[in-house]
From TrEMBL:
Compositionally biased region (Polar residues): 59-68, 126-136
Organism domain of life: Eukaryota
TM region positions: 168-201, 213-237, 244-266, 272-293
Extent of Low complexity compositional bias: 49-58
Organism: Elysia marginata
Record keywords, A-Z: Coiled coil, Membrane, Transmembrane, Transmembrane helix
Coiled-coil parts of chain: 81-115
Record's keyword annotation contains Transmembrane: yes
Region (Disordered) location: 49-78, 126-159
Protein name: Uncharacterized protein
Amino acid sequence: MLTIPWLFTSTMRDLLRYPRYHTLHQQQQEQQQQLLQQQQQQQQQQQTILSTTQTTSQRVSHTNTTPLSPKPHPTPLKPEQVEVQAKLEQHQQQLQLQQQQQQQQQQQLQKQQQVAATVAGAGKQVASSSATSSPQAVRRSAPGSPAVPTKRDQTQPKVTDSPRLRRVVVVVVVVVVVVVVVVVVVVVVVVVVGVVVVVVVVAVSVVVVVVEVVVVVVVVVVVVVVVVAAAAVVVVVVVLLLEVVVAAAAVVVVVLVVLVVVVVLVVGIVVVVVVVVVVVVVVAEVVVVVLLLL
């Protein structure tokens, strides 16, 4: 009994695990594509900056050179050339740093792709375990040739062919049977207790009525014996009236107790039936939710 909820939760977790991995894999792929696009844009921007700086440096150097009269010693650089060279060196350093960062990012992306591929492969293995476990999953063209999937095998496996779904259905059926058995046992116990209480109340009421009848008989005998005295007759008549009133009150009390017990039994049976109906409806909704999730 204690293993049934654990088995049900484990199967539900396994069934819901593959879609979550699939969505995570898609999100990782989208992030990787965005990072690659950003890197390509940065590279294009860097290339344009380099091309512009190179063209400006070439123009400055071309204007400063004198090819007709070469000098043995180079002329000192102008401030503009110094600034251009410093910018070129800074751009080259930035390019090297960015290339290193891109390499690190590519390595991280490759690792993430490997992890995502392993996760997706595990999910696909879980999803295709029912199809691969059947003996008609593949057909062989020749005794020594590899397996070739047929058109029937290439289709998606049915939801009812999954062993996990079968296990969930078995667990749900077992839970429903256990709940019904417990409800039946509770109903039987309530009915037995109610019958015992009714029998005890009826027995006590019968004893009370018998005692009252005996008392009335005794009083009648006493009245017959003491009928000679007129004063005694009045007293006896009053006593008889009181006894009759007490007996009637006792009968009324017994009838009320029996009615109360019967009402309690009927209400208990109705409550138990309502609980059984609610449990069956909840179990049916759980089965429908599981089928919709699959």
